[in-house]
Design a protein that fits this description.
The protein is an alpha/beta fold. 42% of the residues lie in helices and 16% in strands. Helix 5 links the parallel strand 5 and strand 6. Bound molecules: NADP nicotinamide-adenine-dinucleotide phosphate.
Length: 275
Protein backbone atom coordinates (compact mmCIF):
# COMPACT_ATOMS: atom_id res chain seq x y z
CA UNK A 1 0.00 0.00 0.00
CA UNK A 2 1.20 3.54 -0.81
CA UNK A 3 2.61 5.59 2.06
CA UNK A 4 2.90 9.33 1.56
CA UNK A 5 5.85 10.89 3.39
CA UNK A 6 5.11 14.07 5.33
CA UNK A 7 8.53 15.43 6.17
CA UNK A 8 11.27 14.89 3.63
CA UNK A 9 14.97 15.56 4.04
CA UNK A 10 16.85 15.91 0.76
CA UNK A 11 20.61 16.28 0.40
CA UNK A 12 22.04 18.36 -2.45
CA UNK A 13 19.14 20.63 -3.43
CA UNK A 14 21.11 23.46 -5.06
CA UNK A 15 20.78 21.88 -8.51
CA UNK A 16 19.64 18.96 -10.62
CA UNK A 17 17.55 16.13 -9.20
CA UNK A 18 17.71 17.37 -5.60
CA UNK A 19 16.39 20.79 -6.53
CA UNK A 20 13.54 19.29 -8.56
CA UNK A 21 12.63 17.00 -5.65
CA UNK A 22 12.53 20.00 -3.32
CA UNK A 23 10.21 21.77 -5.80
CA UNK A 24 8.00 18.69 -6.07
CA UNK A 25 7.51 18.02 -2.37
CA UNK A 26 7.11 21.74 -1.63
CA UNK A 27 4.45 22.04 -4.33
CA UNK A 28 2.61 19.07 -2.81
CA UNK A 29 2.50 20.73 0.59
CA UNK A 30 4.97 18.42 2.36
CA UNK A 31 7.52 19.69 4.85
CA UNK A 32 11.01 19.79 3.39
CA UNK A 33 14.41 19.97 5.03
CA UNK A 34 17.11 20.75 2.49
CA UNK A 35 20.70 19.83 3.36
CA UNK A 36 23.28 21.70 1.29
CA UNK A 37 26.96 22.45 1.64
CA UNK A 38 26.56 26.10 0.59
CA UNK A 39 24.06 28.90 1.01
CA UNK A 40 21.91 29.71 -2.01
CA UNK A 41 20.05 32.90 -1.11
CA UNK A 42 17.82 32.82 -4.17
CA UNK A 43 16.74 29.26 -3.36
CA UNK A 44 16.00 30.22 0.24
CA UNK A 45 14.04 33.28 -0.84
CA UNK A 46 12.01 31.20 -3.28
CA UNK A 47 11.10 28.57 -0.68
CA UNK A 48 10.64 30.36 2.66
CA UNK A 49 8.78 27.40 4.19
CA UNK A 50 11.65 24.99 3.49
CA UNK A 51 14.06 24.41 6.37
CA UNK A 52 17.62 24.86 5.09
CA UNK A 53 20.51 23.19 6.90
CA UNK A 54 24.11 23.75 5.90
CA UNK A 55 26.16 20.57 6.17
CA UNK A 56 28.77 19.02 3.93
CA UNK A 57 27.65 15.39 3.65
CA UNK A 58 31.30 14.27 3.79
CA UNK A 59 31.50 15.57 7.37
CA UNK A 60 30.28 12.64 9.50
CA UNK A 61 30.34 14.66 12.73
CA UNK A 62 28.26 17.48 11.28
CA UNK A 63 25.72 15.01 9.87
CA UNK A 64 25.51 13.25 13.24
CA UNK A 65 24.96 16.59 15.02
CA UNK A 66 22.23 17.55 12.54
CA UNK A 67 20.33 14.28 12.98
CA UNK A 68 20.62 14.44 16.77
CA UNK A 69 19.32 18.04 16.75
CA UNK A 70 16.36 17.03 14.60
CA UNK A 71 15.64 14.09 16.90
CA UNK A 72 15.78 16.23 20.05
CA UNK A 73 13.37 18.70 18.43
CA UNK A 74 11.03 15.79 17.56
CA UNK A 75 11.56 16.73 13.95
CA UNK A 76 13.23 13.69 12.39
CA UNK A 77 11.93 13.34 8.78
CA UNK A 78 10.07 10.21 7.76
CA UNK A 79 11.86 10.14 4.38
CA UNK A 80 15.50 10.97 3.70
CA UNK A 81 16.59 11.14 0.07
CA UNK A 82 20.38 10.87 0.01
CA UNK A 83 20.86 12.51 -3.34
CA UNK A 84 24.01 14.67 -3.00
CA UNK A 85 26.66 13.37 -5.34
CA UNK A 86 29.59 14.29 -7.54
CA UNK A 87 31.10 12.80 -10.63
CA UNK A 88 34.83 13.22 -11.16
CA UNK A 89 37.08 12.29 -14.07
CA UNK A 90 39.74 10.59 -11.96
CA UNK A 91 41.43 8.19 -14.34
CA UNK A 92 42.67 10.21 -17.29
CA UNK A 93 45.52 10.52 -18.08
CA UNK A 94 46.60 8.94 -14.78
CA UNK A 95 44.75 7.79 -11.67
CA UNK A 96 44.09 10.81 -9.44
CA UNK A 97 43.58 9.64 -5.88
CA UNK A 98 42.35 13.05 -4.84
CA UNK A 99 39.50 13.03 -7.38
CA UNK A 100 38.75 9.37 -6.64
CA UNK A 101 38.52 10.19 -2.92
CA UNK A 102 36.14 13.12 -3.57
CA UNK A 103 33.70 10.79 -5.32
CA UNK A 104 33.94 8.10 -2.63
CA UNK A 105 33.66 10.59 0.24
CA UNK A 106 30.60 12.29 -1.25
CA UNK A 107 28.67 9.48 -2.94
CA UNK A 108 29.40 6.64 -0.53
CA UNK A 109 30.33 8.12 2.86
CA UNK A 110 28.06 11.12 2.23
CA UNK A 111 25.18 8.61 2.38
CA UNK A 112 26.55 6.27 5.05
CA UNK A 113 27.18 9.27 7.32
CA UNK A 114 23.38 9.55 7.56
CA UNK A 115 22.75 5.82 7.82
CA UNK A 116 24.95 5.16 10.86
CA UNK A 117 23.33 7.70 13.23
CA UNK A 118 19.85 6.87 11.91
CA UNK A 119 20.27 3.22 12.83
CA UNK A 120 21.25 4.31 16.34
CA UNK A 121 18.37 6.81 16.61
CA UNK A 122 15.64 4.82 14.91
CA UNK A 123 14.84 2.52 17.82
CA UNK A 124 12.87 5.28 19.55
CA UNK A 125 11.31 6.87 16.53
CA UNK A 126 8.55 6.54 13.95
CA UNK A 127 9.14 4.57 10.74
CA UNK A 128 11.82 6.13 8.56
CA UNK A 129 12.70 5.55 4.91
CA UNK A 130 16.22 6.12 3.69
CA UNK A 131 16.46 6.33 -0.08
CA UNK A 132 19.82 6.36 -1.87
CA UNK A 133 20.32 7.59 -5.42
CA UNK A 134 22.46 5.09 -7.29
CA UNK A 135 23.40 4.90 -10.95
CA UNK A 136 23.49 2.43 -13.82
CA UNK A 137 27.25 2.82 -13.84
CA UNK A 138 27.08 -0.14 -11.43
CA UNK A 139 26.36 -2.37 -14.47
CA UNK A 140 29.22 -1.14 -16.69
CA UNK A 141 31.76 0.99 -14.84
CA UNK A 142 33.05 4.10 -16.57
CA UNK A 143 36.86 3.68 -16.81
CA UNK A 144 37.40 7.46 -16.70
CA UNK A 145 35.38 7.89 -13.50
CA UNK A 146 36.47 4.99 -11.32
CA UNK A 147 35.54 6.67 -8.03
CA UNK A 148 32.03 7.40 -9.26
CA UNK A 149 31.41 3.84 -10.46
CA UNK A 150 33.03 2.31 -7.37
CA UNK A 151 31.14 4.55 -4.94
CA UNK A 152 27.76 3.78 -6.51
CA UNK A 153 28.51 0.04 -6.61
CA UNK A 154 29.42 -0.09 -2.91
CA UNK A 155 26.52 2.21 -1.99
CA UNK A 156 24.10 -0.11 -3.78
CA UNK A 157 25.63 -3.17 -2.15
CA UNK A 158 25.34 -1.56 1.32
CA UNK A 159 21.70 -0.55 0.79
CA UNK A 160 20.85 -4.02 -0.48
CA UNK A 161 22.40 -5.62 2.61
CA UNK A 162 20.81 -3.08 5.00
CA UNK A 163 17.38 -3.48 3.37
CA UNK A 164 17.48 -7.21 4.05
CA UNK A 165 18.91 -6.79 7.53
CA UNK A 166 16.38 -4.18 8.70
CA UNK A 167 13.33 -5.61 6.92
CA UNK A 168 10.22 -5.35 9.11
CA UNK A 169 11.83 -2.79 11.45
CA UNK A 170 11.36 0.99 11.78
CA UNK A 171 13.94 1.52 9.05
CA UNK A 172 13.27 0.95 5.38
CA UNK A 173 16.23 1.12 3.02
CA UNK A 174 15.50 1.89 -0.63
CA UNK A 175 17.62 2.74 -3.65
CA UNK A 176 16.97 3.88 -7.17
CA UNK A 177 19.31 2.89 -9.98
CA UNK A 178 19.09 5.79 -12.41
CA UNK A 179 20.18 5.95 -16.01
CA UNK A 180 21.22 9.21 -17.67
CA UNK A 181 19.32 12.27 -16.43
CA UNK A 182 19.65 15.71 -18.06
CA UNK A 183 21.36 17.67 -15.26
CA UNK A 184 24.58 19.67 -14.90
CA UNK A 185 26.49 16.85 -13.20
CA UNK A 186 30.07 16.48 -14.52
CA UNK A 187 30.20 14.27 -17.57
CA UNK A 188 33.04 12.34 -19.16
CA UNK A 189 31.31 12.50 -22.54
CA UNK A 190 34.21 14.35 -24.19
CA UNK A 191 36.43 11.30 -23.58
CA UNK A 192 34.40 9.12 -25.94
CA UNK A 193 33.67 9.16 -29.69
CA UNK A 194 30.88 11.57 -30.72
CA UNK A 195 28.49 8.70 -31.35
CA UNK A 196 28.52 7.92 -27.60
CA UNK A 197 27.20 11.37 -26.70
CA UNK A 198 24.48 10.90 -29.31
CA UNK A 199 23.57 7.55 -27.72
CA UNK A 200 23.64 9.17 -24.27
CA UNK A 201 21.23 11.89 -25.39
CA UNK A 202 18.92 9.28 -26.89
CA UNK A 203 18.85 7.30 -23.65
CA UNK A 204 18.60 10.27 -21.25
CA UNK A 205 15.46 11.19 -19.34
CA UNK A 206 14.32 14.55 -18.04
CA UNK A 207 14.68 15.59 -14.41
CA UNK A 208 10.88 15.50 -14.10
CA UNK A 209 10.74 11.84 -15.14
CA UNK A 210 13.53 10.95 -12.72
CA UNK A 211 11.67 12.75 -9.92
CA UNK A 212 8.45 10.86 -10.66
CA UNK A 213 10.37 7.59 -10.40
CA UNK A 214 11.94 8.58 -7.05
CA UNK A 215 8.60 9.75 -5.66
CA UNK A 216 6.94 6.51 -6.78
CA UNK A 217 9.62 4.41 -5.10
CA UNK A 218 9.46 6.47 -1.90
CA UNK A 219 5.72 5.72 -1.59
CA UNK A 220 5.98 2.03 -2.35
CA UNK A 221 6.92 -1.04 -0.36
CA UNK A 222 9.64 -1.96 -2.87
CA UNK A 223 13.30 -1.74 -1.98
CA UNK A 224 14.68 -0.91 -5.39
CA UNK A 225 13.70 0.68 -8.67
CA UNK A 226 15.69 0.56 -11.90
CA UNK A 227 14.80 3.50 -14.12
CA UNK A 228 14.46 3.69 -17.09
CA UNK A 229 14.52 0.14 -18.44
CA UNK A 230 15.72 1.22 -21.90
CA UNK A 231 18.96 2.50 -20.36
CA UNK A 232 19.32 -0.64 -18.26
CA UNK A 233 19.45 -2.65 -21.49
CA UNK A 234 21.93 -0.17 -22.98
CA UNK A 235 24.26 -0.66 -19.99
CA UNK A 236 23.95 -4.44 -20.26
CA UNK A 237 24.94 -4.10 -23.92
CA UNK A 238 27.93 -1.95 -22.99
CA UNK A 239 28.97 -4.52 -20.40
CA UNK A 240 28.82 -7.30 -22.99
CA UNK A 241 30.75 -5.21 -25.51
CA UNK A 242 33.42 -4.52 -22.86
CA UNK A 243 33.89 -8.26 -22.54
CA UNK A 244 33.84 -9.08 -26.25
CA UNK A 245 35.42 -6.10 -28.05
CA UNK A 246 39.09 -5.46 -27.24
CA UNK A 247 39.64 -1.86 -26.09
CA UNK A 248 35.94 -0.96 -26.00
CA UNK A 249 35.03 1.42 -23.11
CA UNK A 250 38.42 0.77 -21.52
CA UNK A 251 39.80 4.26 -20.90
CA UNK A 252 43.24 5.50 -21.96
CA UNK A 253 46.06 3.52 -20.47
CA UNK A 254 49.48 5.04 -19.82
CA UNK A 255 51.41 1.83 -20.30
CA UNK A 256 51.76 -0.16 -23.49
CA UNK A 257 52.53 -3.86 -23.82
CA UNK A 258 56.31 -4.34 -24.18
CA UNK A 259 57.38 -5.86 -27.48
CA UNK A 260 58.83 -9.28 -26.80
CA UNK A 261 60.85 -11.65 -28.93
CA UNK A 262 58.33 -14.46 -28.49
CA UNK A 263 55.37 -12.40 -29.65
CA UNK A 264 53.57 -12.69 -26.28
CA UNK A 265 53.21 -9.88 -23.73
CA UNK A 266 55.97 -10.28 -21.14
CA UNK A 267 55.87 -6.95 -19.34
CA UNK A 268 54.97 -3.29 -19.49
CA UNK A 269 56.94 -0.13 -20.17
CA UNK A 270 56.05 3.45 -19.29
CA UNK A 271 54.90 5.88 -21.98
CA UNK A 272 56.35 9.38 -21.74
CA UNK A 273 53.19 11.49 -21.86
CA UNK A 274 55.15 14.78 -22.10
CA UNK A 275 56.50 14.04 -25.56
N1 LIG B 1 22.48 13.12 -13.76
C1 LIG B 1 22.58 11.81 -14.02
O1 LIG B 1 22.67 11.38 -15.18
C2 LIG B 1 22.57 10.83 -12.87
C3 LIG B 1 22.45 9.46 -13.18
C4 LIG B 1 22.43 8.54 -12.15
C5 LIG B 1 22.54 8.97 -10.84
N2 LIG B 1 22.67 10.30 -10.57
C6 LIG B 1 22.83 10.69 -9.18
O2 LIG B 1 21.84 11.63 -8.82
C7 LIG B 1 22.32 12.48 -7.77
C8 LIG B 1 22.10 13.94 -8.14
O3 LIG B 1 22.83 14.19 -9.32
P1 LIG B 1 22.53 15.43 -10.28
O4 LIG B 1 22.65 14.93 -11.67
O5 LIG B 1 21.32 16.13 -9.85
O6 LIG B 1 23.84 16.31 -9.99
P2 LIG B 1 24.05 17.88 -9.73
O7 LIG B 1 23.09 18.69 -10.53
O8 LIG B 1 25.50 18.11 -9.90
O9 LIG B 1 23.65 18.05 -8.17
C9 LIG B 1 24.43 17.49 -7.16
C10 LIG B 1 23.99 18.10 -5.85
O10 LIG B 1 24.79 17.48 -4.81
C11 LIG B 1 25.35 18.54 -4.02
N3 LIG B 1 26.59 18.13 -3.36
C12 LIG B 1 27.73 17.70 -3.94
N4 LIG B 1 28.66 17.46 -3.00
C13 LIG B 1 28.09 17.74 -1.81
C14 LIG B 1 28.52 17.69 -0.46
N5 LIG B 1 29.77 17.29 -0.17
N6 LIG B 1 27.67 18.05 0.54
C15 LIG B 1 26.40 18.46 0.24
N7 LIG B 1 25.94 18.53 -1.02
C16 LIG B 1 26.76 18.19 -2.02
C17 LIG B 1 25.58 19.65 -5.01
O11 LIG B 1 25.82 20.86 -4.32
P3 LIG B 1 26.74 22.06 -4.92
O12 LIG B 1 25.81 22.86 -5.79
O13 LIG B 1 27.22 22.77 -3.72
O14 LIG B 1 27.84 21.40 -5.72
C18 LIG B 1 24.26 19.60 -5.77
O15 LIG B 1 23.25 20.23 -5.03
C19 LIG B 1 23.80 12.13 -7.59
O16 LIG B 1 23.94 11.24 -6.50
C20 LIG B 1 24.14 11.41 -8.89
O17 LIG B 1 25.19 10.50 -8.74
C21 LIG B 1 22.69 11.24 -11.55
Amino acid sequence: MDQVPQHILITGTTSGIGRKLLEYYHAHGERVTAVNRRVDERLEAHYPSVQFKYVDVRDAKAVDTLLNELTRAGDLPDLLVLNAGVNRVDNDPTLSLDEFRQAMETNLFGALNFVAPLIALAANSRPIRILAVSSMTIYAGNPFCLGYSASKKVLTYCFHALAQMYAKTHLKFQWIVLGFVNTDITSSGDKFPKVMSWVKTLFSVSEDKAISAIVKLARSSRCCLIYPWKTFFLFQGVRLAQLLIPGFYRGRKQLVPMPSSGGGVKGMERVDTKR
